[in-house]
Queue: 3 jobs
Job 1
Amino acid sequence: MKQIITILFFTSLLFANTNQSQTFINMMVKKYHFDREYVQSVLSNFQKDESTLKRYVGRYKAGTTSATWVTYKRHILTSSMIKDARAFKRKYYHTLTRAQRLYHVDLNYIVAFLAVESRFGKYTGNHSVLDSLATLAFYKNRMQKYFYRELKELFLLSREQNLNIFSLTGSFAGAMGVVQQMPSIQRKYGVDFNKDGVRNPWDIEDAIGSIANFLRKNGWRKGSVVAVKTNFRGRNFTKLYCSYKSRYRVSKLKRLGIRALKRFPYRWAYLLKLRFKNYQEIWMGGKNFRVITTYNHSTNYGMGIFFLANKI
């Protein structure tokens, strides 16, 4: 039986880095005390996901793993999305206010996360999480180290929560549930908010508690400024580099002619650029904006959450 498992395992990894896969098995056995035959058996049954791998091979290409601002706006800030978000807020208002009270997080932002990530659980993905993570962990790509760690987290999560590792489905990148949590995020921030004894990323109430817990532990300040529009609107802003992690003194921005159109209470600001078809806008992001982008490293994502929360 052991020989059969070994043969299947190496057949599955025929084109992968077998040294790396063997290192992975040894790590899971020695460091995390998994049964060797179990890990080999699991990996022998994963299927290489070619479509997912193509998204991460080579240099980053816009639109392959994230969307442009125009795309975000077109798909997120729709009348139907806003209508659904308001209906969800009414339906789960008691749970949302409980999360807001316990974690000191603005409830409209919790709603926005659930809307953007899965349309409140309607679209949680149908990719095998095992196939996605094993493919990206063992086949060369620009984020291989990250997915190698997430594959480890998947094994640990499945053991801790008694999950069938083969039945878990999610996004092409291995994100699961209502707020599309990677295994490491679910292990660290997932909560049993409905008190049924299970931290279930597919349960709406648990998802509400989990995203609130994530925001709070990453530094969210309830009621604080998230983003403010500046006076710049033009063809091309080139004075400074703009991104969700590019931070400048507000005094420096003022010297360059960049001023917030509303009160911005911080001395430092993240400089954010939104690209439209014929012009650009520059915004200043506060500490809460940076917290949003710790969940998804994208200015467009952060602004999508910000705008939707305000529309709600």
Note: The chain is about 50% helix and 10% strand.
Job 2
Amino acid sequence: MKTYFRANLQFMRPIQDAFPLLQTPKKIFIITHHKPDGDAIGSMLGLSYFLKKMGHEVAAIEPSEMPEFLTWMPGVDGVLNYEEKPLLCEAAFNEAALIFCLDFNDPSRTKYLTQQLEQTTTPKIIIDHHLFPKECWDYGMINSAKSSTSEMVYDFINLMGKNEMIDNNIATCLYTGLMTDTGSFRFSCTTDETHLMAADLKRKGLNHSIIHEHINDSWSLKRMQFLGYVLLEKMEIFPKEHAGLIALSKQDLKTFGMNINETEGLVNQPLCIKGVKFATLITERTDEVRLSFRSKGDYDVNAFARKYFNGGGHLNASGGKSNSSFLETVTYFKQILSEIHPR
């Protein structure tokens, strides 16, 4: 199977140069980004299982709690939540001989370990598919053309020549990340390589239908009612700009007893409407306002997020933030709707 990746970034060495570091058992620290999604957790758990099979001692760290719909995944009981157990996480970081950073391209995306990651002399390996990485990694593979970090962890395993070590736990974790970051294989980031990976995991015995059931068919009644409220009362469509907006205040979430993790996927809802090419979800948090952007075709949400909301990501999926109030952010977004257009 072909494997494509970019390793010609001058500030770091290609990931193959780190393979000798993995030939003897080590304490390894794996971390993903704050507010982890399916790809973050799937890639972290898949890599963790793989490295443990190689004989390493692995500490898998999530900077904050994972969404409830991911808690069924194999290996979640061993994940350390930094917000719950910061001292244990710090100790694991300090004891590590090698650090893997997954699904983020800037240490600030971990929120709590930014300074430690920037200053540590412990070798850091990045595996990521986001644009414009910060120049602070020792080894890595970065490819924005890849569907997901989970697909890149699969590539990493193949590069090591250890495809036969992929068992059902690894396959389940990596498929979960692959499926969630591709929107069940419908987003434009899905490639022939993506499908070949899925086919290989199926040949190894993966039960994909159970994963789809866990992700898509495990909503609470309360969350389904919340979705109805959001679509009826909180979604706005702007036909001229081919845009859709959902804006949720803290009070909206409180009224239905929702936490912020339960807004996962809402940003995609306006894209189901004929003619909508650009969708935005604005959520009010305790300390800031967050924005999620999704699009179709040549509508570049990465450029939009970087220009107006100190964010970024991919062509069709990006995020940003605002230090203004919730209402000010919503008003400002509507004022710049005319800037939303194809490349």
Note: Residues 94 and 122 are 9 Å apart (CA to CA).
Job 3
Amino acid sequence: MNQALAQTAPVDPNTAADAIAANAPETVEQAVRVDPAFVLSKIETWVVGFQQLLPNIVVAIVVFALAFAIGWAIERSFRAWADKHERANLGAVLGSFLKWIVLLFGALLSLTIVIPSLNPGDLLAGLGIGSVAIGFAFKDILQNWLAGLLILIQRPFDVGDQIIVDGFEGTVEWIETRATIIALFDGRRVIIPNASVYSSSVTVNTARPLRRSQYDVGIGYGDDVEAARASILQAVSQVEAVVDDPAPEVIVFDLAASSVNLRVRWWTPSKGYNLVRVQGEVLQGIKQALDAKGIDIPYATQVMLFHDQTEDADGRRDKQREGWPSRPNGRQPRSVRELSEERPGDARSSS
């Protein structure tokens, strides 16, 4: 009886609500509720940790500043040495490279001071793996940088030299880490990657103090070769840019079909003169000298043979080999021999 009454007794609503709330999951507001004491303890821990690391941080900053000063001093010293030896490009590239090496070493040393548990060997191993990935990603850039460094060290040419590479001819303006900059003679600028420059054939026009030029001049077979040579040598020697040592020379180079070809050679400074203008002055002087001596500069001789001057069958479409177009009146062309028999003295006329 008592058990039945206990089972049928009314339940207190407040008690039931508390039981349900105790068993229900936390709401969003309850989940994100932060205990102020816990937050303050965390901040206090951070502050205490920072105070403990503060001497290490100060030492790390001093070490990195010292590494920066050493790197800057190395770069400035190397640039000064390069400028003294007229190798400013090499000083800019290699000096910057050495500075970044010193800065990287200083950064690693500073990190080990701030974080004593950090192992430099593991960090370098990680950098090694990363450098392989970076090398594959920036292969062309690194290749051009290394080629530029080798060009600056070996010095096959310098800034201001006139070179020919990959079909481009001009003056070298600057050699940077990625490319070689060339100013073309027509006012344009071309930027050639250092890898292409290093692996291609390069002609350096200003590698030596003097540069030889040459030009072939033809005179008639009936003209005096020695007189022509003397006139040409005198004309070439009067040009200001042509040097006396080595002296200009004129040699018989070819007995051509319609002329005796004389090869004229002269030397000029490789820098400081426009060789195209110098050649123009030389050729103008040669032409005027030969004209003054009455020496002929012959044109090329060509011999043209017409059909009616070779054989009797020419002019007859049924016998000749090449054929003639048909005439509107149906008459066939006749040979010069037949025409000369009909009208002597007018053999060149045609029917």
Note: The CA atoms of residues 75 and 97 lie 8 Å apart.
